[in-house]
Amino acid sequence: MFRVGSGHDTHRLADGYPLILGGVTIDHPQGLVGHSDADAVLHAVTDALLGAVGQGDIGDAFPDTDPQWKGADSRIFLRGALDRVNRLGWRVVNLDVTVFAQRPKLGPVKAAMKANLAELLGVPADCVNVKAKTGESVGHIGRGEAIGCHVVVLIQSFTAESAEGVEENRGSN
Ligand code: MG
Asked: Whole-prediction pTM value?
């Protein structure tokens, strides 16, 4: 049994904030604004994982009205979502990530993001792909006002038995 999940996130760029994407801190004069560390890549991965198991979105699991998530390291959100996926009897097969940023150029950090995501998800590096696109100088991405991310994840049930467990869990969640 397989399932697919998709995630999308966008955060505003501003002076004086750190730029963290995929858990990698990038040297840049601007960073992303958010309640947590505003890592749009980890937020999109978290949403994709939750989506694949029918568990809503990152705002349901980690509300931005909750002070405990203020300035939070977004790796916490990804680990929380992955834990749900695993407890429901599923494992990650592969992850495909597309980051949209006019600036900075992300080519030099794609490999570090890929390695970091593979480690966080506990999968081999070749099961994670990171692509970088500009905004072609149009729209909020192209004007350098924001950075966005789109993610697709495939998950597979551990065993036939655990897949039955997922069926049973559907009613209780
Ligand atoms: Mg976000």
From this structure: 0.91
CA 15 to chain centre: 23
Q: What are phi and psi of 68, to 5 degrees?
A: -65, -20
Angstrom CA distances, 107 to 25, 33, 44, 82, stand at: 14, 22, 19, 27
Task: Estimate the share of the chain in helix, then strand, then coil, as percent rounded to the nearest 5.
Answer: 40, 30, 30
Q: In 3D, which of 156, 152, 146, 102 has the Cα closest to residue 130? A: 152
Burial 58-70 (b: 16+ CB within 10 A, else e): beebbeeeeeebe
Measure 21 CA to ligand 1 centroid, in angstroms.
Answer: 11
- Whole-number Å distance, alpha carbon 126 to ligand 1 midpoint, is 26
Could you list the mean pLDDT of each consecutive 10-residue stretch along the chain, which spans 173 residues?
98 97 97 96 98 96 90 95 97 98 96 98 98 95 97 90 51 44
Measure 64 CA to ligand 1 centroid, in angstroms: 9
- Please name the helix (run of DSSP H) or strand (run of DSSP E) that holds residue 2, with its range, or none: strand 2-15
How many residues are recorded in the chain? 173
Query: Using CA atoms, how far apart are residues 46 and 127, in angstroms rounded to an integer?
Result: 16
